[in-house]
């Protein structure tokens, strides 16, 4: 059990968050993890406490909850719930993805929105933070059902979004297909072709090259920096990746390009081990069909086996949790340490439990928090917004080059900040403090709003 290590000056802030957001455990967890690292910042900058910056930062600017009625293929009316948490517009329009998954509730979008504020600040780009989604379960639904759901969702959401206000994108369960349906409905309702209202669009109607790949590629670039800072590289490294969605697939692709070998991958059905290296083409084929499961991969590839237990028991040098929150427990962390894992870098948002983080850090495993290591996706969304505003379309090499630069800048900023605040080498402290300071200073400049 992780016991919060809070500075006395921050305990009241945390208690108020728990009281005010009852039952929203993931939000409490995300706030606690940040507050735990802010003590040294308050020693140097008491003005943050005096001006109520921290109390304001943990309270979303606006939370929108709405009904999403839609008709399924059998003519039955389904009622889902929609959410958008507009957390902070201090550095730019609210920016962050939409998640369509049955586990979505107010607490999940709030934790994701909070993480997004600091992540977006770390990118150095002019974007605030928000997140949204729905508790709808669209798995196995037809394209027509997905379209009707997205149209209904946007029929309410359109009032709250816009290129200068709030710019959603994809997340779990929301990819190019859903973004297309959402964009079409926004255009129809507003009678405006406004590409800057959503990111992750198709390339022919305002999308950016490399946005689809960006989170996974960015994660691999970040880990390359971590390894280089310790005089090593991906060459010859065994890598384990959880998830088999957008982030995981492109992380696997880039790890292979950078010289590592991904030896295991998972989805909600289980995991597979392939010591020769995951064959990405086959994995995409297996996952491509409706209801495709990674465990089917083992049936079609010599030497591959469907795993038993947890994917984190597979020996590796680098572990990349890319599926969902709290998927890597203390037991999993103990197995990673036991098997000699050197680096854990989060592709998903908050996939590592606090107990697991403690265990990894105590064992000297290099741990990169998602708000730093998975920031490449949102950074490339910000590039998409820049291209839309300028009516430009950059080349893939151009966008990829900018993505590499952003990831290496974030890495450097984390290390410099950790050093400056007395925790050399600590990526968690570095990411939290660097992101926090950028938002907090802008909040001070903008007055009590
Ligand atoms: N898509 C993006 O640009 C970004 C996504 N993220 C985060 O990355 C994570 C994954 O997102 P996407 O790849 O976009 O979603 P996705 O919906 O494309 O893929 C998610 C994958 O995880 C698997 N999964 C779900 N729960 C699992 C579990 N308990 N164990 C193993 N596998 C499980 C699913 O089967 C699916 O293959 C989420 O935490 C998301 O918030 C973070 C930054 C940007
Ligand atoms: O590209 C975006 O706006 C959102 C990406 C996202 O949802 C995330 O960083 O978790």
Automatic annotation (TrEMBL):
Key words of the record: Oxidoreductase
Cited Pfam families: ELFV_dehydrog, ELFV_dehydrog_N
Cited SUPFAM superfamilies: Aminoacid dehydrogenase-like, N-terminal domain (SSF53223), NAD(P)-binding Rossmann-fold domains (SSF51735)
Gene3D superfamilies according to UniProt: Glutamate Dehydrogenase, chain A, domain 3 (1.10.285.10), Leucine Dehydrogenase, chain A, domain 1 (3.40.50.10860), NAD(P)-binding Rossmann-like Domain (3.40.50.720)
Domain Glutamate/phenylalanine/leucine/valine/L-tryptophan dehydrogenase C-terminal, first and last residues per copy: 208-447
SMART domains: ELFV_dehydrog
The keyword Oxidoreductase belongs to this UniProt entry's keyword annotation: yes
The keyword Protease is annotated on this UniProt entry: no
PANTHER family xref list: NADP-SPECIFIC GLUTAMATE DEHYDROGENASE 1-RELATED
NCBIfam families, A to Z: PRK09414.1 (NF006929)
Similarity comment: family membership: Belongs to the Glu/Leu/Phe/Val dehydrogenases family.
Subunit structure: Homohexamer.
Record-given protein name: Glutamate dehydrogenase
Organism this protein belongs to: Aeromicrobium alkaliterrae
The organism's taxonomic lineage, starting at the top: Bacteria, Bacillati, Actinomycetota, Actinomycetes, Propionibacteriales
